[in-house]
């Protein structure tokens, strides 16, 4: 059985290189490509792929938020995160958003194929070092220890707005991208500042970069 794949990566050369490799597999069929998270959500809804290969760091809507939206609308679609980051926060947030796998970008091509096969069989794929990290998290939570980040204080829409603020967009530009009013954007911004106890746009930008919502 051939698995249909949506490839999501904002770097054109990287995306084309991955496609060239994946096209060599007779068990995979690339049915679409997206260069940002918002486009990924739209294409996933239109194409209904079996698997989405999702870059974590992308403009307009990062991979974790895109994953959350796709998983909510299409729970049967398997999503594998691709990232340069291997720290606890990115992995945990990805799984919490609904990802079925997490593969570092420096992994071998064969590992990516293994990840796809694993999630298509209904299981979760994590490389051994990340498995150990997640099991450690689970053990701490089972013992009643609270492991949370400031990012978890925000709603999904607030995280979207925060990313767009971090990328330097004005309230009017954010309103246009999200199809909401400028007043609603300003309300979200005030709520974000209150929850995070940050009082300046520069502070919000630093927070967004530090938590992987956007890059420099």
The amount of helix comes to: 40-55%
The outline comes out as globular
Number of helices: 10
Low-pLDDT runs of 5+ residues are none
What is Rg?
A: 18 Å
Q: Mean pLDDT across all residues, rounded?
A: 90
Biggest beta-sheet profile: 5 strands, parallel
Q: Please provide the ordered H/E string of secondary-structure elements.
A: EHEHEHEHEHHHHHH
List keywords for this structure.
216 residues; alpha/beta
List the helices and strands and how they pair.
Layout (H helix, E strand, L loop, with lengths): L2 E6 L3 H11 L5 E7 L2 H11 L3 E5 L7 H11 L4 E6 L4 H10 L3 E4 L4 H12 L7 H15 L13 H11 L4 H8 L3 H15 L4 H10 L6
Parallel strand pairs: 1-2, 1-3, 3-4, 4-5
Helix pairs in contact: 2-3, 3-4, 7-9, 7-10, 8-9
Can you tell me about this structure?
The chain has helices at 12-22, 37-47, 63-73, 88-97, 109-120, 128-142, 156-166, 171-178, 182-196, 201-210; strands at residues 3-8, 28-34, 51-55, 78-83, 101-104. It contains 10 helices and 5 strands. By secondary structure, the chain is α/β, with parallel strands linked by helices. The mean pLDDT is 90.
Quick recap:
By secondary structure, the chain is of the alpha/beta class. It has 10 helices and 5 strands.
